[in-house]
């Protein structure tokens, strides 16, 4: 069957199998920031925004998404450069092997949409479904809190 | 803007030569129903209704089957009315968690519970109707049972049924479409609480417990719900404990006796996650904690 997705702002046609998940379709389209860590919703490495909310792309049927807007980590960077979440992850040493990073960034973006000023506990709870097997969570959590502060400054200033 | 031709991708042509295709087999078609009648007709002809799809993806059909997309129907949304809150079947768990009308209901016990269900990534996609249709591995169902929720479903005509009866009759396995769940607002003075025992919030409960206590004007217990779930069956009300609580005041002694009785009455079984004995012990502890929290709130 044929669907059109708006991936990172760009209308994109895809021919899919009815049982295909969004993760496989996005990777086939070349969006390899969408990582397959577990293929069962446990690890969060394939997280993307679906119409503004972060989801496990491995658990979503692409057949249900004709016309939907998808944002991958590749769509985070703007004309002004890296997104604050990307910048603080790099600057704060929150990236080691990098495999979980795109999913964590999209999950954090979902959190900051609703909670622009989260507590550390709220950030940790938001990452309940995001697994990092290298650095642990101290630096990613700190980076997300710093990004939240940068985003608030940008909004207020 | 027309689709970009260069981005047309074909299934089975992996972007990388070694990429594995993780999608599921045996989905013949994905039907987009025009309305609820068409959806029910397709389900009665053997199609599998799919809402958020997060659980369906993990449990592929053994034989070729048509899937039916419920998310194209106007079934999402939360309405408040004098007696409570009505939640449409394709409402996501996140939408429920963030809704102030749901949060204001029954001491916020629905929201307290939802924060501990799966991860935000799952809650953003999983829907209440899909969750009720699955009918197992649930923290949501015990809380809805404790609040005397009713489920609305259609199998050619609309039906309302208490959620307890819905599961006792195995109705969730029948060819029907769940359209909504309604949670009545408890009449004050009333208190509700939920406890889940697990290693982390993201994991499935080893046992969970949802309780509701309604008091009469004199401060004695007029009605109660003591629901224990993941026994490992889906939650069920402990009727003997509820009968025993009626007419008593919620004292430390009443709570201790109810917890002991619940531990004996719970239909606990062993599975790979915990033994029946461990679950019985947990039942006493969680019932005690829930009732103590309610007593403090009602004091």
General shape of chain A: globular
Structural domains of chain B: how many: 3
Class by SSE composition of chain A = alpha+beta
Based on the coordinates given, report the CATH architecture of the largest domain in chain B: 2-Layer Sandwich
Biggest beta sheet summary of chain B:
5 strands, antiparallel
Largest interface: A-B, 48 and 53 residues
Helix coverage percent of residues of chain B?
Answer: 25-40%
Rounded to an integer in angstroms, the radius of gyration calculated over CA atoms of chain B is: 21 Å
Low confidence ranges of chain B: 1-9, 12-20
> The CATH topology of the largest domain in chain B, please?
Enolase-like, domain 1
Overview of the molecule:
The complex is a heterodimer of chains A (157) and B (299). Chain A is 35% helix and 15% strand. Chain A is built from 5 helices and 5 strands, in the order ββαβββαααα. Chain A has a 5-stranded mixed sheet with strand order 2-1-5-3-4, with helices on one face. In chain A, strand 1 (2-7) and strand 2 form a beta hairpin. In chain A, helix 2 (84-91) crosses helix 5. The longest helix of chain A is centred in the last third of the chain and has 19 residues, at 138-156. Chain A is globular and about 45 Å long. The relative contact order of chain A is 0.16. By secondary structure, chain B is an alpha+beta fold. Helices cover 33% and strands 23% of the residues of chain B. Chain B is built from 12 helices and 12 strands. Chain B has a 5-stranded antiparallel sheet with strand order 4-5-8-6-7. Chain B is globular, with a radius of gyration of 21 Å. Classes of the chains: A alpha+beta (157), B alpha+beta (299). At the A-B interface, strand 2, helix 1, strand 4 and helix 3 of A face strand 1, helix 2 and helix 6 of B.
């Amino acid at each position: 069957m044929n669907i059109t997705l708006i991936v990172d702002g760009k209308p994109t046609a895809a021919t899919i199998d009815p049982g295909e998940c969004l993760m496989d379709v996005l990777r086939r389209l070349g969006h390899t920031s969408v990582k397959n860590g577990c293929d069962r919703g446990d690890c969060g490495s394939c997280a993307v925004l679906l119409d503004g909310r972060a989801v496990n792309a491995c658990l979503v049927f692409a057949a249900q998404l004709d016309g939907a807007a998808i944002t991958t980590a590749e769509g985070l960077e703007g004309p002004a450069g890296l997104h604050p979440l990307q910048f603080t992850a790099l600057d704060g040493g929150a990236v080691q092997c990098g495999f979980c990073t795109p999913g964590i960034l999209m999950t954090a973006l979902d959190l900051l949409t609703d909670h622009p000023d989260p507590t550390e506990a709220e950030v940790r709870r938001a990452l309940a479904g995001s697994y990092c097997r290298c650095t642990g969570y101290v630096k990613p959590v700190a980076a997300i809190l710093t990004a939240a502060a940068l985003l608030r400054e940008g909004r207020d200033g | 803007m027309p689709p970009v031709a260069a981005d047309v991708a074909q299934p089975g042509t992996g972007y990388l030569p070694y990429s594995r295709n993780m999608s599921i087999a045996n989905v013949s078609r994905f039907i987009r129903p025009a309305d609820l009648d068409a959806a029910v007709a397709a389900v009665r002809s053997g199609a599998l209704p799919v809402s958020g799809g997060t659980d369906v993806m993990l449990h592929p059909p053994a034989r070729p089957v048509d899937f039916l997309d419920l998310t194209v129907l106007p079934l999402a949304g939360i309405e408040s009315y004098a007696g409570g809150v009505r939640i449409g079947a394709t409402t996501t768990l996140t939408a429920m968690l963030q809704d102030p009308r749901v949060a204001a209901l029954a001491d916020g016990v629905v929201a307290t519970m939802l924060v501990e269900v799966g991860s935000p990534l799952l809650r953003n996609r999983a829907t209440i109707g899909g969750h009720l249709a699955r009918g197992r591995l649930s923290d949501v169902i015990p809380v809805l049972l404790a609040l005397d929720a009713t489920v609305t479903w259609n199998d050619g005509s609309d039906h309302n049924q208490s959620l307890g009866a819905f599961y006792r009759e195995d109705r969730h396995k029948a060819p029907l479409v769940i359209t909504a769940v309604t949670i009545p607002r408890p009449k004050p003075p009333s208190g509700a609480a939920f406890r889940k025992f697990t290693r982390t919030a993201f994991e499935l409960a080893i046992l969970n417990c949802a309780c509701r206590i309604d008091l009469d004007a004199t401060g004695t217990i007029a009605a109660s719900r003591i629901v224990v779930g993941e026994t490992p069956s889906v939650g069920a009300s402990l009727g003997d404990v509820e009968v025993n609580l009626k007419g008593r005041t919620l004292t430390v002694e009443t709570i201790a006796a109810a917890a002991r009785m619940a531990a004996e009455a719970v239909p606990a079984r062993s599975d790979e996650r915990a033994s029946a004995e461990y679950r019985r012990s947990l039942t006493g502890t969680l019932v005690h904690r829930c009732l103590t929290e309610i007593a403090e709130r009602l004091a």
